[in-house]
Amino acid sequence: MTDAATRAAELLKGHRESIDRLDAVLVFTLAERFKHTQSVGQLKAEHDLPPSDPLRESQQIERLQRLAREADLDPEFAKNFLNFIIGEVIQHHKKHQS
Description:
Layout: H1 3-46, H2 54-70, H3 75-97
Helix pairs in contact: 1-3, 2-3
């Protein structure tokens, strides 16, 4: 390998190690988030509250899109990601109410 190719391989390895660490952070962060949403679902079921809260959801989407812009992340991606998470949370909340 040339010096440039060796250097590129080292940089690639470093980036991949960072990506792997960040993936772990994401997984553990999502797990923590879902622990809290499970508690919310239980509270909603105990008090006969609806599994979804459209006003809060829209506020959270706006908030996440604003944060995404500040972080130089595509706000549409942030919106889609949060919508996916919200969908999962609502399904969990509905299970609590069954």
